[in-house]
Specification:
The structure is a homodimer.
Chain A lengths: L3 E11 L2 E4 L1 H13 L2 H8 L3 H15 L4 E4 L7 E4 L1 H31 L2
Antiparallel strand pairs in A: 1-2, 3-4
Helix pairs in contact in A: 1-2, 1-4, 2-3
């Protein structure tokens, strides 16, 4: 028998529905670094439609935008993460980091259980 | 907007496949308390077939039994959790308890992020 591996995940719900997890966190970070939804989608290897619908779902659920689009300028329309989106992202990453520490700590205990 | 809720789960994999999580932990505990797979399935509101296939999947993956059946006696055939099953259960519950503590601690941070 190979080594057992401990896995886990955390996410944020609102009214029992998925609001924010690994996927949306990565998407907001990509919008931040690429400056547009199109660029973020490309970076993550997903369609624009998919990226847009993830952001839209978050907005529909909370009634607040995670990303706001900016029109015009030399590079055409872009997008940036709102204060609300940034706060959500920061909270999620902070909790996730503590959770990952715990997984690392507990990993060896789990490995040993298989011996 | 209602309160955001932090959710999460942990599980154990072997060779990239699900080995042990909330469902199998509850099943082993029910076998322990009921003394048979049939009784455990009834207690958890699942079919005998389902309970048996969960135990079987764990055995196929690890090459070791989680439960062993006992034949005969005044009450007919029964089942009990093997030492290996018990060790797996104990390890899982220990890690899960620490993880639940972390979720409780972080819950308020997440709630506040929505304000």
């Amino acid at each position: 028998m190979g080594p057992m591996e401990l896995r886990g995940k955390v996410w944020i719900e609102l009214g029992g529905r998925h609001l924010f997890g690994k996927g949306r966190a990565a998407l907001l970070e990509a919008v931040e670094s690429e400056g547009s939804i199109q660029g973020a989608a490309r970076k993550l290897g997903m369609s624009y439609r998919k990226a847009w619908s993830m952001l839209r779902a978050g907005q529909t659920l909370t009634g607040a935008r995670l990303v706001e689009t900016t029109r015009g300028g030399s590079k055409g329309g872009g997008a940036r993460v709102t204060d609300f989106g940034r706060e959500l992202l920061r909270t999620y990453r902070r909790v996730e980091a503590r959770f990952d520490d715990l997984l690392k700590e507990a990993r060896n205990e789990v490995r040993r259980a298989g011996d």
